Amino acid sequence: MSVLPYAVAAWLFGVGLYGIATSRNFIHLVGCLGVCQSATYVLLLGLGYRWGSIAPIFYDHPPGTPAVDPVMQALVLTDIVVGATLTALLLVLTVQAHKRGGSLDPEKLRPMRAGRKSGRSQDTSRGDEAARGAR
Amino acid sequence: MTILLPLLLLFAAISGTAVVLVRDPNRQVFAIAANGLVLTILFDALQAPDVALSELAVGTAAVPLLFLVALMAVRANASGEEP
Lengths: 135, 83
Fold this sequence. Notes:
Chain B: It comes from Methylobacterium phyllostachyos. Chain B: One of its GO terms (cellular component) is plasma membrane. Chain B: It holds the Pfam family MbhD. Chain B: The chain crosses the membrane at residues 28-46, 53-74. Chain A is an all-alpha fold. Chain A has a single domain, classed as Helix Hairpins (Orthogonal Bundle). Chain A has helices spanning 4-22, 26-48, 70-101, 121-134. In chain A, helix 2 (26-48) runs antiparallel to helix 3 (70-101). Chain A is elongated and about 65 Å long. The termini of chain A are far apart. The relative contact order of chain A is 0.11. Chain B has one domain (4-81). Chain B is built from three helices and no strands. Chain B has helices spanning 4-21, 25-45, 49-81. In chain B, helix 1 (4-21) runs antiparallel to helix 2 and helix 2 packs antiparallel against helix 3 (49-81). The radius of gyration of chain B is 16 Å and the shape is elongated. The chains are: A mainly alpha, B mainly alpha.
């Protein structure tokens, strides 16, 4: 049992990396990155867990009762919030890449250049229209 | 009780694998929400109720909704490009 959380964390991380490497869609890739992050949650909570101990809330237990490590739980809490922020940021970048390149496939991304050689020419006209509409 | 924790860990591994193997993003949203729910139950069994609460709010509700918003924005952008 003591090895199982680490094995599950390693499996989740490996499977998430496999998904990132073989993904053909940016939104699917962000979901695979979330799987990699869940590996860190399982790893940290498995590190701090002790058999037969209570949650670190001493409201109805006398002080000194064996409890699981609250530091790891604080770390996991921070990790979850940072992970949600990272997911939101990457999804916004995905939408912007789709607006600019017209595709969600990582293979079809072209490098951005100063001239309008790559990307679509109608993107600029539509952007100008949007800017004019905003004015 | 001793069988519950290994079972939930295996469920977490299986649902994480399902998130990766579902290649269509429209269906992957449901896999992500199910993965968040399994992780919530696992964290509760690992004696971390506050982490379970935050994972329930973030992993089961907020992140799938973010994915839905991103899919909607991409679809609106693609349909506005056609004509």
